[in-house]
Amino acid sequence: MARIRFPILFRGGSLRAWYSTKAISFVPACPPLDSVEVDKLHELVGRAKKLFVITGAGLSTESGIPDYRSEGVGLYSRTQRRPIQHAEFLRSALARQRYWARNFAGWPQFSSYQPNSAHLALKKCEVLDKLHWLVTQNVDALHSKAGSQRLTELHGCTYRVVCLGCGAQLSRSHFQDQLLQLNPSWNEEAQEVAPDGDVHLSEEQVKHFHVPDCSTCGGILKPDVTFFGDTVQRDKVNFILQRLAEADAVLVAGSSLQVYSGYRFLLAANERRLPIAIVNIGPTRADHLAWIKLNARCGEVLPFIWPV
């Protein structure tokens, strides 16, 4: 299936008006921006002609989506909730029922999130032909909504649903309609939405929820994302490594790189002796590889470099 296209949203003052009124509840505290460090970052990426960028959940917190690991405000530090494991989804019909009920309840809010100034700055970098390739660990489609084209969604995207039997794909919005038709009287209120669109519901709330099988082969339907405990497809990894081999600098924005699927690209960049810059609130797994590290908000730093 071709990548889902979204209208490019928020231009100029409209973004600033939206951002000024948006409650940023999931962005951890960070020190004031150091203009000297920003200038160093600007110089590093300014020299690059083929910039390779990796983004993570810290880029989307400023759009109102919580991350997992941030101290004090991340989902792990505030709740006992954990994302579903790949093996659990495959082996248990009850786990799939619970997952889709919660995802169904959270989808209206999750699908309403919009790109922030950091997403738009990276799109501007692409428009200026400075960005060679963008790899995101996020599954929220905010880069696509911002208009990014040179993009690989490393862990997939929640806006697509795939059959594990025949490989058929459908849009998440179409699947939402199917779920609504099967559950016309089911009306449970969603609580806080997780980074993958999940919400918390009790077992009692989900036990009467109905989930369709694939209309083509009767197989299991799953969001087109890499669940925890699963691995990224090798051909996707190889494609990204090829784009990295063509790059002349690397920028990490909003990722702690704790998951190896993203960290491996920093190891490869270091082997190639590429300059590496990191913008993230808090430590990352690759800080020892960075030429420049800014402990700052992506939405504050990136628009300095690529104004939107």
Automatic annotation (TrEMBL):
UniProt EC number: 2.3.1.-
Name used for this protein in its record: NAD-dependent protein deacylase
Keywords (A to Z) from UniProt: Metal-binding, Mitochondrion, NAD, Transferase, Zinc
Gene this protein is translated from: SIRT4
Catalytic function, reaction form: N(6)-acetyl-L-lysyl-[protein] + NAD(+) + H2O = 2''-O-acetyl-ADP-D-ribose + nicotinamide + L-lysyl-[protein]
Species lineage: Eukaryota, Metazoa, Chordata, Craniata, Vertebrata
Organism: Erpetoichthys calabaricus
Cofactor(s) this protein requires: Zn(2+)
Family affiliation: Belongs to the sirtuin family. Class II subfamily.
PANTHER family linked to this entry: NAD-DEPENDENT PROTEIN DEACYLASE SIRTUIN-5, MITOCHONDRIAL-RELATED
Function text: NAD-dependent protein deacylase. Catalyzes the NAD-dependent hydrolysis of acyl groups from lysine residues.
Entry annotation: catalytic residues: H155
Cofactor-binding details, from the entry: Binds 1 zinc ion per subunit.
Binding site residues for Zn(2+): C163, C166, C214, C217
